[in-house]
Fold these 2 entries.
Entry 1:
Amino acid sequence: MKVELVRAPKFGAILRKHNGALVLGETPVLPGHEANDPLAILLTNFLLWESTPKLAEEALGRLSRLVVDANELRVMLEREVIETIGDKYPFVEERAARLRATLNDVFRRQHRTSLDHLRNLSRKDQRAYLDGLADIPPFVAGRTAVVAFENPSPIIDDSMVELLVQQDAVDPTATTPDVAAWIAKHHKIEEYLKVSGALDAMKREAIGAGGKNTLKFRSAYLARHAGFRAAVEAEKARIEAEKRAAIEAAEREVEERRLAEIAREEQRIREKKEAEEARVRQRIEREAARVAAIAQREADRIAREEAKRAAEAARIKAAEDREKAKVAAEAARAKAQAERDAAREKARIAREKELAKKQAEREKLEAKRMKLEAKRKQLEAKREAKRAAERAKAEAKRAREAEKKLKAQRLLAEAKAKKDAAQKAQLAKQLAAKKAAEKKAAEKKALAKKAAEKKAASQKSAKSKNSKQASKKVSKQAPKQISKNTTRSTAKSNVTSKKSANKTANKTANKSANKSAKQSAPNASKKKSTAKVNAKASKKPRRGKRK
């Protein structure tokens, strides 16, 4: 069942009994302020609240002796305000606390202690601003609106409400703001002053003309509402505690999410850094291995060249020694057999011409055979390069198919595929790099093989030309009276030198062929086939020379 806070019939009877408009009279203000200053009127109304005009004038007199304006009251301590107003003033502690809170609220809103801005606002906004000030009583807000801005408002305090409760016109649980709100709701604006005048007359009649018992009625009001206020404050405290708990829980949740996000981001950055470091280490290891392999190959090449130069120097020295010994022997034999060889000079010359003709034919056939052999090796190198390119193309095709398969698997299982895709992509890159390196190595080996073959062929042709020139020079320098035995020994020595030159060329060709076969053998089958071809190529010239 709903309880009416104000009993309208009895309230109306009280108004009819004390019928008459409110007589406000002159409102004194603090010296230093104008008579119509809203802030000075607010200060006077604070002193009139739950007091009498006589006590208010005395308090204003004490304030005028210590302060210049209301702003000094705002900055003063509460204890100083109490001492300034007077320790025996009614409800002085509560009055001082409320006054300081209201003045500070005005300063916080306007950044100055003034209410002049309210003159330009509407009546509704003026009343809302005054009612919204911190700790301002309804009596002070209403009387300030009426006196300063001529804005009709209900003027009621706790003593009036207590008198209405005693006359059973208001429910005991009703508060002063509740009664003020009821009056504003159930009465017209034009009736506010009449209602306030009747309530003021009722209060003056109750407390007496001499101002006695000014504290009794409000003390009874406060005592009755103490329990109500405690319950209300407890409920407010509970609601505030729940709000704070909800806010703290939300803040904790947000902080936990933020920390989790930070942890995930740190983990991702750490994993990315570790992966980058691993890639850098692998790259460094590969580069070190490549540099070491290049250095080893260079050292092997230098060693082979040194050995080759040493062998060539030894061979040249041995040939020179043999030539010197041969020349000495020939000279001795030539001196002893000069007379015997004179008769056979014509026959020797004829045979020598025939031998020279045969030798020229053999050299021509040998040059043709070497040219064909070089062409065959070049074709073999081209076929080998083509096969290597086809293998690289097939490997690239398989790599692309594997990458397509990985993409399809990544679409089916995205969570797992991230890690697998990275690994397989890395493997594909390594495989492609390896195949490219193999292809490059194969091309380099083919070029080295071709260069070695060309070098061997050039060395062989140069040696054959040198031997031919040497034989011609010996034949020209020999005297015409050389015997037939000397001619035969010279021919034999020329054949021997040519055979030694051919053997040296064959050895060089075999070494270069073996070297190219070892360098261009990526698998066992290719190595065997290349070795067989080189063996056949190296055996053919020797069989022809023996014939």
Entry 2:
Amino acid sequence: MSRIILVFSAIISLVFISSGLHFFVSELNLPAIPLDYSINLPAHFLNNAPGPLPTSINGLDNTPSDNPLTNEGATLGRVLFYDVNLSQNRTISCASCHQAGNGFSDPSTLSTGFEGGQTRRHSMTLINSRYYQRGRFFWDERAATLEEQVLMPFQDSIEMGLTLSTLIDRVNEQYYYPSLFADAFGSSEVTTDRISKALAQFVRSIVSYQSKYDIGRAQVNGPGAPFPNFTAQENQGKQLFFQTIPNGGGACFGCHTTEAFVSANPGPQNNGIDIISTSDFGAGETFPNIPIFQGRFKTSTLRNIELTAPYMHDGRMQTLEQVIDHYNTNIQPHPTLSAALTDANNQPVQLNFSNSQKAALVAFLRTLTDTSVATAEKWSNPFMNNTNLVVTNQNDSGIGSLRSIMNCAGNGDTIRFASNVDTVFLNIPLNIFKNIAFKDETGNPVVIKANFNNSGFTNATYGINVAPNVHVFLHNIKLNHYNNSIFKPLLKNEGTLTLSSCELNGNLKSIVNNQSGNINIQNSVTIK
């Protein structure tokens, strides 16, 4: 018996992706019970050790009272964070520039946006974002809160290229969001406020406290004591990190403070990588009336620093060794150089570490690597990587449905149909924004029918729409009207449509109406 795909509402819009980036996102894979996003910090995070600087994170949490972390909210935020549908051509997600395996940063010097353009600055790590009392975000601190920050990349013309209204539309298009919003906020309503809160919850959940350093720190009374699990070199590096400059150390802890290794300073700092600012004035662009902020940038956490290369706001340093060399002998006398990096004569400090001391400091920094950040399921991509892309579900939505598979296929992918799929129901418009092939290779051709009598087609003009600069390949597929709605044009082709062993059924005029693109014929094609 011929298998029938009832496309009650199938407007297929395809947009060519010229960038070469491939995000093969497949179906959403979430557990029935949300994962646990609570943060169970070890005691050394919560109790100050003796010394002039704070070691606990008490008082640094920037979580607002109206957006506490919940499992349901962070789960929704995780899906939003990894969803490529939320960029203009559906190729870029937040995770494209903040990759878990790279400490939620980007291994590229500058990040690549949805059309191949590059960002102005290097992607900052998201780890320990919640522990910054000042609560501002981006290198130049232009976002007053994390809730404000997470919406900005969507609207950036290079990064994701949407408006907030389009963002809401995109979220509403996806079948998996209504239940996620209802679980997180009590109803399925999608608003920018809810999107920002969910994303902020997810980002604030990314806290690192399971490194080799933490194992050792839990065994001693303070960070200055030798750690029993450290090598002699690592303990030497730790000593250099914490000791003051007059005592032979680097005073690194002065700017990367507390067990979260974040800034406890009153604002952005200048670390002397330039002698003068010429094109990027950092926080001076956000606060032009505060001269001391010219050429200053936010200080990021050192947690997982081994994984977040390249370094600095512009990614100019590729290795930790280069970073240590900079602080050792190459600090420049910038007019706003931070006081912590100047000597008694107001000149840049010269640490003059030996090669073995520099190697020890690098070895210590590597003890801050926490592999759980890259491997924990709760921070991973919730979309399964499905290279088969086979329609196995006859229902309107859900795992294995045509809607889900088409939504999750990558640019250039092929969608096939399982032999046991007889009917697939699609009740609302289905949008695809990539070059794609549909192949039935198991016998009778799949029949794709457009139901113009269904309410889902209220505003639809065509059953299938192939957009400009797009190539669509159909093999062993039937395109057909449903319920004799033959007076609506079935197909609008503005790109390139290749038909192989296909059949087009319906009023001839309605089938070929508005054909401004190219149609290629392979094997036999029947028009009825």
